[in-house]
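Example noted here:
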Amino acid sequence: MQELSRMRAMETRLNGGRIALAREDAAAYAWRVRAANLRGADDLRRLYEAGERDFRGAQLACADLTGAELEGADLSTANLAGASLIGSNLRNTRLVRSDLAGAILRQADLRGADLRGTPLGRADLKAARYDAATRFPAGFSPVDGCLMPESGFLRRADALSAAAGRSPQNGPRRAGHG
């Protein structure tokens, strides 16, 4: 509602504002329709290669995005349930509140990715890479998710492992065997 009020105020201040706002609204609407109607991985790859990075709300359930180059893309609120993202480059990608249930992200590059608000419990993240800039959802442990820390970030992973009561190399600790 505040956004609408702000747009109306802008409209009254600008000469020809109605035309400019109509164009902006039409462009935003066209993008929402395009994102909702992506026909899968091929459309996404083609648009990415053409310079598009805004894929918010895209419907890509079960899409084969194996090895996809999506660095810097915004896939917030996208439906990627059951998608294959094996070995994909998702560096600095926004995946905020996306659906990754059953998605396979093995060996994906998640360095700098923003995954806040995205349930990761049912996603396969084995050997996916992360770094200090990767933002995980509250309560998620990259160590428990079998992710691989960026080299030089290993000490933090060891600290997380120790805090969870595990020896980084030997699994669970036994009482009295610190």
Remarks:
- Helices lie at 2-13, 17-36, 41-49, 154-163.
- DSSP finds four helices and four strands in the chain.
- The longest strand covers residues 129-130.
- Residues 14-22, 152-157, 165-178 have pLDDT under 50 and may be disordered.
